[in-house]
Amino acid sequence: MKHLKPAVLALALGMTGALAAQAQQLTYASGFPPGGPVNEGLKDFVAYVNDNSDMSMKLFELSLLDLKETPAGIRDGLADMGYVLMPYFPAEFAEANLAADLSMLSTSGTRGADPAIAMAGALTEYAMLHCPDCQAQFARENQVYLGSASTPDYVLLCTQPVRSVEDLKGKTFRAGASNFGRWAEHFGGTKVSIPGNEIYEAMSQGVVDCTMISAPELLNLQLIDVTKYITTGVPGGVFAGSGAANINRDTWAGLSGEQRSFLLKAAARNVADVSIRYNNAAKEALEESRKRGIEVIEPPQALLDASEAFVKDDVKVVAKQFSDTYGLSDVDAKMEVIAGLVDKWKEKGAGLEQNTDGLADLLWTEVFSKVDPETYGLN
After folding, report:
1. pTM above 0.70, yes or no
2. Domains in the chain and their CATH numbers?
């Protein structure tokens, strides 16, 4: 091999050092506007990385990529990390979306931990430890998955009151995921798929009568200005299909094993922090709505029972859809694992709804510590 001249060798070594430094300066793209539980939690995540590691990270709040642009932006290296809403991309993330589509299990059956806590733990454990097919899909998108945060349970934000099963008929509902769309259609409504950034306009212009979403979005997306009635308890379920800190696979590979180990620890805390912030924000948003004169409707038992019956029957629909439409294999076995994990995290997460450190430690012990930072996401 030819020997490099000293000047050339110095230049080559300098470039290598620059690339290593660049790999440690991470950009995080959030498609949410400033404020709200996601971005406030992400600020803690960024500060934790900056204060406790040799890496630096900068958060871009709706200034680098929006929610629809984020997966491709991470894949192509426009951002190192981002908050990926997987149900917005049903085919690309079909394996993880199978678990996300079963989120109504967190609000049905035996109650335990708050739904946000139970589903965040269940989906994170499933995708990281029990679903090699999930990992293969993340790899195809040039991403490494680092856990799912979850919203609180979904409610109805409406321009017209919903007090009964009959009130659901004929209304147009914004649905952010397919299970919520099926719920609306089951009760005689029409589903409309609209990104979160466009809900305000859709409600203000009468494109939709109701939005199925978690209560914090009343303030995060200013939906409180266009909402006249809120019905709690239905449709239930949560939006847990987030990649709360998905990272570009090339960036991940360029980090040292020690750095990857640190990010796994930080990611466990991120899942806990964002989920708990979301949970608390729901209570605050409902209280603010009452102060502004918005009627908060407690649903009658007949409506709750009808919704519970839908969830039980919908499990079969989920299985058929993911098998026929998305070509997933062994769907019944996968769903059995997911249901078991929801039950596990209902029990394990109970009492940790206000304990970020405790939930982060539990996530670390049960999930994140069980992957090898030398090989995770790189096989």
Report:
1. yes
2. 26-150+239-290+330-370 (3.40.190.170), 154-236+295-305 (3.40.190.10)
